[in-house]
Amino acid sequence: MKGGDMSSVSPMVSFVLGAAMATVCVLFFMSATPARRLVDISAFTSAASNNSTADLQGLASSSSSDADAVADSAAALAATATPAPAPAPVQAPSPWGDLEEVLARAATKDRTVIMTQINAAWTRPGSLLDLFFESFRTGEGGVARLLDHLVIVTMDPAAYEGCKAVHRHCYFLRTSNGIDYRSEKSFMSKDYLEMMWGRNRFQQTVLELGYNFLFTDVDVMWFRDPFRHISMAADIAISSDMYIGDPYSLRNFPTGFPLRAVDVFNLIKHEMAPKLDLAIQFLDTAYISGFCQLSKDLNKICTLHANCCVGLGAKLHDLRGVLDVWRNYTAGTPDERRAGKFQWKLPGICIH
């Protein structure tokens, strides 16, 4: 989302962040300038300076019998008086804790961050977070450097502690709905949808704070930098389950929209997007790929999402196979790579 105009942020956030209740691979919102800060309260008092003035006036009144002495005394006092220190500004506590500090530390110069969200089930050794990191570290073209700009949003204390053990930029998103987020949430279950809605509300806050973000699920493998395929002319860029060849065609099918949300998305993209003059870019699955529409060209692929795949065990099985093939590919000679010698292991549980 570009700009910080809340009149344009609100409907689009209601659309994309509200309709995308299911897992979305990559969402890129651009907000070049902040519309408002969550906390921007400064309270200063002039009482100290008023008191100093009163003191000088009192001295003048008590010494009215000698005008010259009064003037001399007042001038000397004014010259030697030490101004009272200004009181510290009073700032209300942020309801988001240390969020602004974490964002500022991770952001690029143009205030862009990469974000993902995890719970404790994904931080266990050998689980999705380990595979996620490994994809960056075995990737090409300096993609590993993007980890410096990754903010991991954790949904429970165990996930937060697990994150801090392996990464610099961790944020604990505290919730008040009483849901235990430590375990895996079944796709489209009540707790899963509540977790997605909480994520959506949080993402709107990041926009309001004036940051651009690219959201990635932790079951996305990062092999090359995907930013080069995101047009700066787009207000929103979103990955595709099915890509028809035209990045700006509204007939593309975006990642992560379950059946009930498709109607909402269609309503928005055909009616509200033109009214708001918004450019929505759908990312080419040759580069920003997934199990739904798999890119077979390892020379092009930037990210690979375990979409169209339900269950943590199934995702882990297939993504481990993906990483095995990628490691062999990166160890191959240029001629072997150009010849297309390396292909995904098919079929898997979900990948085909």
UniProtKB/TrEMBL annotation:
Residues 146-254, 263-319 form the Nucleotide-diphospho-sugar transferase domain. This is Nucleotide-diphospho-sugar transferase domain-containing protein. The lineage of its organism: Eukaryota, Viridiplantae, Streptophyta, Embryophyta, Tracheophyta. It holds the Pfam family Nucleotid_trans. It comes from the Eukaryota.
